[in-house]
Design brief:
The protein is α/β, with parallel strands linked by helices. The protein has helices at residues 41-53, 65-75, 84-87, 92-103, 117-125, 138-149, 178-188, 193-200, 204-218, 223-233; strands at residues 33-37, 57-62, 79-83, 107-112, 130-133.
Amino acid sequence: MGSTIDHGPVTPGDASRDAGDLVVASGRAGTPTAVILDSYPLWLEALQRLLAEIGVTTVGKTASPRSALGLLDEHHPDLVVADVDLLGEHTRLRWIESALSSSGGAKLIVLGPRSESGLVSEVLAAGAHAYVENTMDSTELTLVVKQVFDQSIFFAPVVPQRPTVGRSQGQPTHTLTRREWQILTLVSEGMSNAEIAQRLWVTEQTVKFHLSNVYRKLGVSNRTQASRWVRINGVVDVERKPAVGS
């Protein structure tokens, strides 16, 4: 390949920590580390710099899925960022499973094109912690990285299953976070992503991220089907408080 592959660690320029730095959950001591898999050298460098800005040290970057697995087995990083196009349509699920196993429990973010929910659901079902469109800007990507380590940034605690009307006994229940219930309710009322973002004081990309989780959990593909699910199951409305960080 024509790309440059650098397997050496890159330490953030400033060793001090501030409020924007990432704090990894207990169980992984020291500075959080990452391995990046992407086919474009410019993307590798850009992602490396972005992670460094929030206190994550890149210990390996490569354009080869096989080499990436070797780096994961060697370094056991806290985070893996991988380009879905490199993984191959017929091998990506097996690669994701191998990556999670080789890394010893790293958080996995998959980057890819704007896609129908089928690909997103497939990747998340295989174990990825987030699917991020590669058109997302750096600020929003930073928020996603922080969110996969600490879901309190975006998600309220999981709430018990709410009583519903018209659900058959054999139908499985669905556990959504409070934020997911809020967004599902607003979608069923006909609000657009932009309107929901304004109502809840979040970015539109955050709304899209939550919606992809809602679709996956309900087994639907779009907002029309999600709204129909609400009508059929008689979901009770949830309290909506447009407070920052709720």
